[in-house]
Structure formats: C-alpha cells, structure tokens
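To: structure subgroup
Subject: Chain for Friday's discussion

All,

I'm putting the inputs and outputs inline so they're searchable in the archive.
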Amino acid sequence: GMPYDKKRAFGALIGILIFQQHGGTANNAAAAVEGWRLGSIPNPYEQKHACGLEEAGGLCDPDGILSPEARVKVVNVMRAIRADTSVKCPDGSEKSFEVGAALVNRMHPDDWVSGNKKETTKVFAQELGDRWGIGDLGCNNGVLLFLSIQDRFAYIKTAVVSQTVMTDSLSEMVIDNLKPLLKGGQYDDALLQAVLQINDVLKGKSIPGSETTWVSIFVVLILVGVFLGPILAMIVVFVLRAVLTPVAWLLDCVTNLCGRRRAELDLRRVQTELERS
C-alpha cells in the first residue's frame, strides 16, 4: 500500500449503530467465535490470501463474509478511485484518493475500550489505517470503511484532506444507505454499494440522501417564511413608522412655517396697495 501519514492520521470519524446480526460464514473459527484482536486483522497488500483475495488490494475479508465475486468487484472500485480521482495535497502536489475497507464478524471483547464498542471500532479503524498505509504520506487523502457484523457497527474514517470532500454528513449518508442491506444480510450488495457511493462522493457526484438534504433546507426556509413572515412585516412597518414619523413632522413644520411667512408677505403687500390708494 501507499505510505500513510501517522502524524496527521484520519481526522474525522462517523460511527453509527446500524444493523442486526444475520449470520455469515467464517474461515477463521477462533476469530469467528472470540473476535479479532487489535492489530491482528491481516494486511491485504501483504497477506492477500488471508484477506480472501487472489490479488493484493485494499479490502480484507478474513472471515469470508463476502463472496469471491463481490470481493473482486469491491477491489476494482477501489482501484478505479485510485486511478480516476484527483486531490491537491497540502504541499501543492496532485494525488488521488485511496480507499480501504475491512469486514469482520466481531472484535475481541478483551480489546474493547471501557466496554464501548463505538470507541473500540474507532481504535481498530485507526490501527488499520496506520498499518495498511491508506493514503499518501503528507497528503492525508485516505478513506477507510470498517464494519463489524456481530458488533453491529460501521465506520467511515477520513483524513484531513479527504474529509474536505468526504464530509461527516456524506459519510453518514453512505452508512445510512447501507442499513436495509445489512439488516437483510446482503453483505455483498452492502459493501459494493458503500464503495460505489464513496467513489461518487470523491468525484463530486451526489448520492441518495444528499438531494434530500437540500429539499429539507428548502422546506424549512418556506416554513420559516410562512410563520415568521407576518412578524417580520410588522417589524418592518414599526421601524419605518419610527423613522418616517419625525421626518413627516419636520416637513409639516417647514411647510406650515413657509405658509405663514407667505401669508404675512401677501398681507403686507395688500396693506401697502391700500395705503397708496
């Protein structure tokens, strides 16, 4: 894999409890029963067969949850992301995003962080990103998807640069879109859909759910306008009256003053004419 920047590793983390366990085969009996220890999940670039791959790639499925065909498809999408995306690194150089994924039955209870599976998944994801080398050194352009089936958690982890495109909200949408497939035990379709949607996000395309966000914002603005419109109108009228009333009073005074002055002059003119007569 590509070198990984351990000084500024994955910065943002989205973790959501998302699905119920619906079985799944396991090649490693001990791991299937007890769970994977931190640091024990194989590196797909160095131990491809242990990850269920015929060729090295960014996916590790050590428990054989996916079909061989699904693994090939997922890795092909990851390679397409590496080949077809573009991102500017902090040093100004141009790189492409790199995506990795791991899918296991469960994490070993002895490695749980204070009994918190969410935090444990975060630690596992961080360890995988560091050890696998997801992303380029100094670029922070990696994305890692980690799923633990029996623990019922899925995480998308991003780095400083990749997070500018793969935002927290978009990561959450990808996870949300997996829920029906994972709950139905359709792991092949779930993981393939996830990497395809990550691919779309990294290429600036929309995914299911992103359009809904803008629609929701539009609806909220309409509702705000309906309920707050009359109040705003009253405020505007009040302000205009407060500003214009003194001006109108001043104009009225000036007008009256000028009128009286003109009347006085007319009266004097008439008196002068009478005196002459």
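Points worth raising on Friday:
The chain has six helices and seven strands.
The radius of gyration is 34 Å.

D.
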